[in-house]
Amino acid sequence: MSQESIINFLKGLPYFRALPPQALAALAARTSQRAYSRGELILLEGEPPQAAYFIVSGQVRVFKLSAEGRQQILDRLGPGGSFNLVPIFDGQENPASAEAVNAVTVLVVPRADLLATVRRYPAVAEAILADFASRLRRLASLVEDLSFRTVRARLARFLLRQASSRGHRLTQAEMAAELGTVRDVVGRTLADFQAEGLISIERHRIVIRDRRRLEALGQ
Amino acid sequence: MDERTQVFPQIDETLCTGCGQCAEACPTGALEVVEGHAALVDPEACAYCADCEDLCPQGAIGLPYEIESAE
């Protein structure tokens, strides 16, 4: 990407929208571009904080791994999304790992440069706080889901959410990682839902047939 | 090839050990072991039955699904 493209991309992000042109240009000059292929690890949990990442293209999965190697997805981000911001602000190690779901291009803003920008321009801090608040809400909802709902209820809600957002394709293993369970359980539960007439599985399509009953199940 | 057959099982070659259980289980012969890894040699024959995904001891095969509403 050219410097001008980087400036235009950063200007389009909520964090940097209010930055004056010279500040934007200075930040862009310190920003680098990186590309990752499908499945490639971008960040590892526990590494020291280096930079904030902003997605130009592709999808990124942010996750934690259990000691047994089970993956719990914390967030799934697309173009315009950002990750690795928490360690920028508390100076501690990365709380999660990130990997490329498909071919990904990111812009990388070094920690010192982002902090300097935040200190100098309060509007940037405000925008970041609003984003953090939104993420905290999502995490609280995830905790609620994992703590209080059965796998059946979580999968029911998940299917309804995915259908309404016309999300991208997912394997059963990926669904399991989002729902805090394992692939076999997702497979059996989908088969149960089909037997109960809630969904039909038509090759690579899971079609919701009884939305009302699925919603009731998700409560 | 119509849209229905354009979505196929994904095989992660970094996890696949070439054990061949998937190829043995595949009811249509769509999967074979080629140069030490499972490969979808006949995509049009794939019935999307998920036997390969169920059997793979490494979790190397995943069948992607789209989720939509009939209403």
Distinctive features:
heterodimer; A: 219 residues; alpha+beta; Jelly Rolls; Arc Repressor Mutant, subunit A; 4-stranded antiparallel beta sheet; 9 helices; 10 strands; 47% helix; elongated; B: 71 residues; Alpha-Beta Plaits; two-stranded antiparallel ribbon; two-stranded antiparallel sheet; 14% helix; globular
Describe the structure.
The complex is a heterodimer of chains A (about 220) and B (about 70). Chain A is of the alpha+beta class and about 220 residues long. Chain A has two domains: about 130 residues, Jelly Rolls; about 70 residues, Winged helix-like DNA-binding domain superfamily/Winged helix DNA-binding domain (Arc Repressor Mutant, subunit A, Orthogonal Bundle). Helices cover about 45% and strands about 20% of the residues of chain A. Chain A contains nine helices and ten strands. A four-stranded antiparallel β-sheet of chain A has the order 1-8-3-6. In chain A, helix 4 packs across helix 5 and helix 7 crosses helix 8. The longest helix of chain A is centred in the middle third of the chain and has 27 residues. The radius of gyration of chain A is 20 Å and the shape is elongated. Chain B has about 70 residues and is an alpha+beta fold. Chain B has a domain of about 45 residues: 2-Layer Sandwich (Alpha-Beta Plaits). Chain B is about 15% helix and about 25% strand. Chain B has two helices and five strands. Chain B has a two-stranded antiparallel ribbon with strand order 1-4. In chain B, strands 2-3 form a two-stranded antiparallel ribbon. Chain B starts with 9 loop residues before the first strand and ends with a strand. Chains A and B meet through helix 6, helix 7 and strand 10 of A and strand 5 of B. Strand 10 of chain A pairs parallel with strand 5 of chain B.
